[in-house]
Write a structure and sequence with these properties.
By secondary structure, the protein is of the alpha+beta class. The chain is 21% helix and 39% strand. A hairpin with a 7-residue loop joins strand 7 and strand 8.
């Protein structure tokens, strides 16, 4: 898998939202913005257990995520897996710092998804699109 440069890593640590794409049972994409934490080379997202995205990801772990900036996209394709509580302390602390969100008291978004990246797509405003993984 391609390595991310420092600029892309910094954006993953700082940016507020990421768009997550899951696959519906009929094959249509489902895309919504979510809060996320980038840590330990993975994305972490908290979801409502019965949401469309949660049901999709339980059935089919293929997922894509994209930062909101269309001029300098950072796009990830990967695999999602649901984690079992208790959540890793470092991840819970990262959500608290980034969003002032205490996961230990959360009543709705009680399922945590870890996304392990398989492929990255990155390009800048003046560059032609380039697939950093070496293939499409």
């Amino acid at each position: 898998m391609a390595r991310l440069d420092a600029a892309a890593r910094g954006r993953l640590e700082r940016e507020h939202n990421v768009w997550i794409v899951s696959v519906r049972p009929d094959g249509r994409p489902h895309i919504v913005p979510v809060w996320f934490v980038w840590a330990e080379e993975c994305f972490y997202v908290c979801v409502q257990p019965d949401s469309v995205k949660a049901r999709n990801l339980r059935r089919d772990g293929r997922v894509a995520l994209s930062l909101e900036d269309g001029s300098r996209p950072v796009i990830c394709e990967g695999r999602a897996r649901f984690m079992e509580p208790p959540w890793p302390a470092g991840i819970a602390t990262a959500f608290r710092r980034k969003y002032d969100w205490d996961l230990s008291t959360e009543a709705d978004y009680t399922a945590m998804v870890e996304v392990v990246p398989d492929k990255w797509l990155l390009w800048g405003p003046s560059d032609a699109p380039a697939d950093s993984s070496g293939g499409s």
